[in-house]
Amino acid sequence: MNQNQLVKNLDEIRNTIPTSVRLVAVTKKVDVEVMKWVYEQGIKDFGENKLQEAINKQAQLQDLNDITWHFIGHLQSNKAKKAVESFAWIHSVDSLKIAQRLDFYAQQALNEKVIIKKPQVCLQVKPLPDDNKYGWTTEQLWNDLPLLQELHYLSVRGLMVILPLGLSQEETLSTFKSLKVLQEKIKDKGYFSDNFNQLSMGMSEDYLYAIEAGATMIRLGRVIFNDS
Ligand SMILES: *Cc1c(COP(=O)(O)O)cnc(C)c1O
Predict the structure, then answer these.
(1) Considering the entire predicted model, what is its pTM?
(2) Nearest to 86 by CA among 68, 108, 64
(3) Ligand 1, atom nearest to 73 Cα
(4) Which pLDDT value is given to residue 106?
(5) Domain range list for the chain
(6) Beta carbons of 81 and 102 less than 8 angstroms apart
(7) Is domain 3-225 annotated with CATH 3.20.20.10?
(8) Cα–Cα dist 210/86, whole Å
(9) Coil, strand, or helix at residue 121?
(10) Which of 34, 38, 72 has most ligand 1 atoms within 8 Å of CB, for mutation?
(11) Confidence band (pLDDT; 50, 70, 90) for 194?
């Protein structure tokens, strides 16, 4: 990809989003050289969905020590330990089982001072039926909240969603708004010590709707790295 194009893409995006919304640059399959250009433009939040790819890039970019790494992919149980050690944020916690494993390894990593801060996590929800996606249905999530609340080594910060393909603009906006309502309900019930204020939603195709509905973090790949 061409550096001028990247700068132009980023400028255009930043002109359309409020500064209060955290822009996570999704850099899966993007070279570290291109990631350095993104960093030079002042982006410090990088999102990856494959653990090993991310760890390799982290090693190559270790001099850029103020990057915040976000894990956004489906996590297998056997990778929970590495995920906790390598990512400040995990957006894609999608089951009670994986949450409990992350909590277990977070306790270990905190004790051994491998990490100094609790992992910040979002709970991935599936507001509409979608065979291809992981996450809690709203009903399952309400069932599991009391147990999630018991996890003391994760900082549970909010909800994350990936919408199914093919929704109309109205459906997109209304679904994002329903996520905002759900997040506020959970917060109002007093779960997670009042820290439950994040909404990780919005990708290249739908981020403006997500922001309109109250997204606090958007995860953008193609609109940043698009060459045309
Ligand atoms: C790839 C990916 C993104 C970015 O998608 P784009 O359409 O390229 O903006 C966001 N979130 C998740 C979970 C992803 O896997």
Answers:
(1) 0.97
(2) 68
(3) 13
(4) 98
(5) 3-225
(6) no
(7) yes
(8) 27
(9) strand
(10) 72
(11) confident
